[in-house]
Structure formats: structure tokens, C-alpha cells
Amino acid sequence: MKTSTRLITAMIAVLVVSVTVSALSAAPNADAQEVTPFPSREKTISVTGMAMASVKPDQLNISFGVETQEKTAKEALDSNSIAMNDAISAIKNAGIPESEIGTSSFNIYPVYDSYEDKLTGRWTQELIGYRVSNIVTVETGKLDSAAAIIDNAVNAGVNRVDSVYFSLSPATNQKLKDDLLEKAVSNAKTRAEKALAPLDHKIIGVKTVSLNEFAMPYPTPMYKGVAFDMMESARAPTPVFSSDQDVSTSANVVFIIGSN
């Protein structure tokens, strides 16, 4: 009889422990989930502010070079080096320091001539030489030197001018970007205040700010490729003029608002 009583007591104890463990396992993990008993009642207004400015470019960009073709690669390289050295010297004579002259591309490749074999009727390629292309870029703040640089380079043997355009220097570009972003955010705040005035509300905080890309106009080249007559450029000074550029930016601001 005592043995049966002990067995029943043990079974009850195991059952109680099992139920307790099961209850603890079913309890939600407070650290694993966030309970939001009420939805947010935060009031916001989203406004996009704009800022624009018209600025004078302060950097001149000229890309030009020399192309030579000879029977061997060495002859083509030697010929190109002589012509390019003459061109660089001519550019320096126009008042441009070496630090503002840089190589943008250098290529050497074989040149083939295609002909049809009269016996077989098949087209065949024959190596007739090598062509070397050396392109340099001048980036300078001396905007008035554009005509002199082009004329000196062409007279010295440059046989291709890829582009001539005016832009903003990196330093001016960064300063302008900071100024316009500040004005864009201020414009967004002003617009929000004007919109809230008739509604008897006011700005009490800022939730998010999204800054858009700085919009720079694509530079319009004065020259593009060899679209101008080299001989005509050599005879008369090349007229090159700069013009103001319009730049803009925007900022989207989400303001937290409340009643007055």
C-alpha cells in the first residue's frame, strides 16, 4: 500500500513539472519582439525645397592630341613623341604649367588593309603599319588662354581636338553645393511654415531629410571632335567664349508638426 502511494505521488510531481515547463516554453520572448499597443499619432508634413544659382565657370578644359601612323610600331611611337613634345612646349608657351597638363589616353594598334584575292575571291587582311594616338587634357583656371592654347597646339602639330568646354573647378563645385543645399533646406522649411499657417499648426521637429543629387548642366563643348578647319584655325585666332551656368539642387524634408 505504501509503495502504491509513493508511486502515485511521484507521478503527480512529474506531471506538475511537465505542465510548468510547457507553460514557460509557450510564454512569449519579451526580448525577441516589440509590442506596439497603439499606432503612432505623430503628425508630419513632407516638403521639397529648391535652390538654384547662376555661376560663371572658373575652369577651362581642352582635350586634344596627336595621331601618327608609320610602318613599324617604333617609328610610329618616335614620330608621335616628337610631335607631342612640340605640342606640350607650345602649350607651356601659352602660359600653362606642366601641372595642368595630363595624359588622358594613349593607344597603339596595328593598321590593316583589306583586299580581295583575285584567284580565290576571299578577302584578306594585310598589315600595313601601326597607329599611335596620344591624347592630353588641359585643365586650367586661365579662361582667357583658350584661344592661345588651341592655336599654339594646332600650329605645333596637333591634328585632333576632341573637346573644349568650361566647367566649375572641384573647389568651387563643392562650395556651391554646400551653399545650395543649405538654401534648399531653408526653402523647404519656409514652404512648410506657409502651408501650416492657415491650418493653425507649426513645426515642432524634423523626422527625415533627403538630399538629392547636385544638378550640374552638361557642359556644351565649344568644339567637338575635328569639326573645325585646322588650317583656318592656324591662320586666325580661335574665338572661344564662356557663359554662365545654371546649377540647382533640392532637398526633401519631413517635418513633425503640432497644433499652435
Tags for this model:
260 residues, three-stranded antiparallel beta sheet, five-stranded antiparallel beta sheet, Alpha-Beta Plaits, 37% strand
Q: Main β-sheet: number of strands, strand sense, barrel status?
A: 5 strands, antiparallel
CATH architecture of the largest domain: 2-Layer Sandwich
User: What do we call the CATH homologous superfamily of the largest domain?
Assistant: Protein of unknown function (DUF541), domain 1
Low-confidence runs (pLDDT<50, min 5 residues)?
1-39, 224-236
Helix and strand layout, with pairings?
Blueprint: H1 2-26, E1 43-55, E2 59-70, H2 73-93, E3 101-116, E4 123-140, H3 146-155, E5 160-167, H4 170-196, E6 201-211, E7 223-224, H5 230-235, E8 245-259
Antiparallel strand pairs: 1-8, 2-4, 2-5, 3-4, 5-7, 6-8
Helix pairs in contact: 2-3
Provide structural commentary.
The protein is an alpha+beta fold and 260 residues long. It folds into two domains: 40-58 and 168-260, Protein of unknown function (DUF541), domain 1 (Translation Initiation Factor IF3, 2-Layer Sandwich); 60-167, Alpha-Beta Plaits (2-Layer Sandwich). It contains five helices and eight strands. The strands form two sheets. It has a five-stranded antiparallel sheet, covered by helices on one side. The protein has a three-stranded antiparallel sheet with strand order 1-8-6.
